[in-house]
Amino acid sequence: MKFLLVEDNHDLANAITSRMRLDGHVIDHADKISDASAFVATGEYDLILLDIMLPDGDGRAFLKQHRASDLDTPVIILTARSQVSDRIGSLDLGADDYVTKPFDHEELAARCRAVLRRKSGNAQTTIVLGDVVFDPVAGHLMVGHEAVTLRNRELRLLELFMNAPGQVFSKQKLADRLFSYDVDVSENAIEVYVGRLRKHLEGSDLRITTLRGLGYRLDRDG
After folding, report:
1. What kind and span of H or E run contains 160?
2. Whole-number Å distance between alpha carbons of 41 and 43
3. Bridge-partner residues for 79, per DSSP?
4. CA separation (Å) from 61 to 107, 123, 127, 169?
5. Fewer Cβ atoms within 10 A, N terminus or C terminus of the chain?
6. Which of 60, 95, 120 is the last residue of a domain?
7. Is residue 171 domain-shared with residue 87, that is, in the same domain?
8. What is the pTM of this model?
9. Domains identified in the chain, total number
10. Using 50, 70 and 90 to split pLDDT, how confident is the model at 92?
C-alpha cells in the first residue's frame, strides 16, 4: 500500500515511516499542507496519516478540502489533542479514525489495517482467486498447496493486481504505487518485479498478461 504522511515533527515522521516500511508500505512525507496538497494532486494513495497542527495551517482544513473534492482516500488523524469535541469534529469532517499522541506504533499499524479493511468492505484481509490464496497483511501467499515467500515489493505488486483483476496497470502507474515520490524508477525495474511475480504464480490459475504499449493485467485461466 502507498501512504501519505503529513507530519511536521521529523523525528516522529521518521519513526512512523520506518515502522510502516516494515510492513512493506511505500510512504511519501509532507511536513506542511501545501506539500500534502501537491502530493494528492499528482499521486494516488491508499491511506493518509494527517497531523492537525502544521506550519501553514490546520490539517482539518486539508481534510475538509480533501472530502469536498470527492476524494475518498481514508484519513487517520494524528494529534496531541485528546478532547472529545476535537475527535468528534475531525470525524464529522470525514476522518476515518483518530489517534492521540503519544501513541504506540504497533497500535497505529493496527489502526491502519482496520481502516483499510473497512475501506475494502471486507473484515477479512485474505484474497482468494482460483487456487491462489493471498493475505497481504500477514504476507502469506499460497499457490495451490505450496507456500510462497515474497519480498516486500513483490508482495505489494501482487496486492495491486489481486485487488483489481482484469484492470490494466501501466508501468508508470505501478512505479507510482510501489515507490515513494523521491525514488527514480526505471521501466526495467518494473519489468523485473513483474517477472519475479510471474515465476511465483507459475502453475496457478492466474497469469500476468502483457498488453503491448499499455501495461500489465492479472487474468484468471478457465
Report:
1. helix 152-163
2. 6
3. 100
4. 26, 30, 36, 33
5. C
6. 120
7. no
8. 0.73
9. 2
10. confident
| Model confidence at 119: pLDDT above 90 | no
- Kindly write down the DSSP assignment for every residue of 42-69, as one continuous string: H---SEEEEESEETTEEHHHHHHHHHHT
Closest CA to 96 of 136, 49, 29, 51: 49
Same domain, 66 and 90: yes
Which CATH number does the domain housing residue 159 bear? 1.10.10.10
Distance CA 67, CA 46 (A): 15
Distances 127 to 80, 131, 188 between C-alpha atoms, Å:
36, 11, 28
Looking at the DSSP bridge assignments, the partners of residue 45 are none
* Residue type (1 letter), 102: P
- The cell for 157 is 505488486
Q: Which domain holds residue 112?
A: 2-120
Domain harbouring 19, CATH code: 3.40.50.2300
